[in-house]
Design a protein that fits this description.
This protein is about 5% helix and about 65% strand. By secondary structure, the protein is mostly beta strands. It has a domain at about 25-165. Keywords: Signal. It comes from Amphritea japonica ATCC BAA-1530.
């Protein structure tokens, strides 16, 4: 049986498998001395009736995604280390220009110095793509009509240091993350979108019940664009939260944070923003085989060109149900309101989506999935509204 450090480092830093794989397999490892190697392979194929998220003249296509992944994990007492690499190869039958190959390399470390001092470290390097019809190339934008998807590289390092034992009345958590994003093609329109982002936070947890704690958090985010035009988008965002977190109380687990957000721009021509902010994630498990997850949040997203930024409010409800040891269904639905602050005409988008997935675990190491997803974007801006339907089947295997 693997120790808790191995389990935490496999599952905590990232989802063990992409959600698109619809899989609940339990991969075995190949042991080479102190290192365990865990390979997995997912193949997914399906039909997309609007691959460019277009409001008119939709293009449909069959799409296949091949996703191999390998993890190497080592343990030393309560400490654990992981190196992971994954590749996503996307193939469109009706639009070969949109084929892509994404890469992701990750390094993780979980270090427990003693019962009161824990440190988690992460570093990633990714080569990704941005689908045509989204982001900079959405319909009606300056990048619309490009001949292929945008490509970009991201580099990220992060840490989370916890001071305080699990049973202590108080606990401090200090976190930080640095992200660097740089586009690789169509530089005449993408060079001004390259940016660096630094986030620092401090949170204090005070236990009021054995499984319930109050929390107080301060978070600061600095965003800097590498090409600094006259109307700079550089900004500093500060968040102040109070809330509570609890585990296993009346079959529920959750965290709720309520507070204030202030976003200040470097350029005087852009309007600063101040308002309420929240983050909440609740899990209700009425039965051991049935789980309801609810999440809602307010956040600031970077605009792809319209306005200063996006004030985004989102909520999502997901129901997972195990019908037996092999069969599971997952139903999910979400709603997002994107308010483009500073945009001409006051652009607002309302995005709704829904999906259903059926997973069948034929063996411990082999799983099949079938799913359907729907997305609808409504907007008060011309050329933005669209709907999209996707149908997918998948197979995932491991050792």
């Amino acid at each position: 049986m693997k120790s808790r450090t191995l389990a935490s480092i496999v599952t905590a830093p990232a989802l063990f498998l992409s959600s698109s794989a619809f899989s609940a397999i339990e991969p075995a490892s190949y042991d080479m001395g102190p290192v365990s190697i865990i390979p997995t392979l997912s193949i997914q194929t399906g039909y997309d009736d609007n691959i460019f998220s277009s409001s008119s003249s939709e293009v449909d296509s069959q799409k296949t995604i091949i996703s191999p992944k390998v993890q190497m994990i080592a343990e030393d007492g309560f400490n654990a280390y992981r190196v992971s690499y994954s590749l996503n190869q996307g193939i469109y039958d009706s639009s070969a220009d949109d084929n892509y190959t994404d890469h992701n390399l990750g390094l993780d470390a979980h270090l427990e110095f003693d019962a009161r001092n824990t440190l988690d470290l992460n570093a990633t390097y990714s080569k990704n793509h941005e689908e045509r019809g989204t982001g900079i190339t959405e319909s009606g934008s300056v990048g619309a009509g490009l001949s292929s998807p945008l490509k970009y590289d991201t580099k990220s390092v992060s840490f989370s240091y916890t001071y305080g034992a699990d049973n202590a009345a108080g606990k401090l958590v200090f976190s930080g993350k640095y992200d660097d994003k740089e586009y690789q093609n169509f530089r005449s329109i993408t060079d001004e979108r390259d940016n660096e982002q630094t986030t620092l936070s401090a949170a204090f947890y005070y236990k009021i019940q054995p499984k319930t704690s109050l929390l107080f958090e301060i978070r600061n985010q600095d965003l800097n664009y590498k090409v600094d035009p006259t109307t700079s988008l550089d900004s500093e965002t500060r968040r102040y939260y109070v809330g509570a977190t609890w585990e296993g109380t009346a079959k529920t687990t959750g965290t709720i944070k309520l507070g204030q957000v202030n976003k200040d721009f470097s350029a005087s021509s852009r309007s600063d923003f101040s308002g309420s902010s929240w983050e909440a994630a609740l899990k209700w498990e009425p039965l051991t085989y049935s789980v309801l997850d609810f999440a809602t949040s307010q956040s600031e997203k970077e605009s792809s060109g319209a306005g200063d930024f996006i004030d985004s409010k989102a909520l999502r409800l997901t129901w997972s149900h195990d019908w037996n040891d092999q069969t599971q269904t997952v139903l999910s639905s979400g709603y997002t309101n994107d308010d483009y602050q500073g945009a001409t005409g006051g652009r607002q988008d309302d995005i709704t989506d829904a999906s259903i997935k059926l997973n069948y675990d034929m063996r411990r190491w082999l799983s099949f999935g079938i799913g359907y997803a729907y997305q609808n974007t409504d907007s008060n801006t011309a050329n933005i509204p669209f709907s999209r339907n996707t149908y997918q089947i998948s197979v995932t295997g491991s050792l």
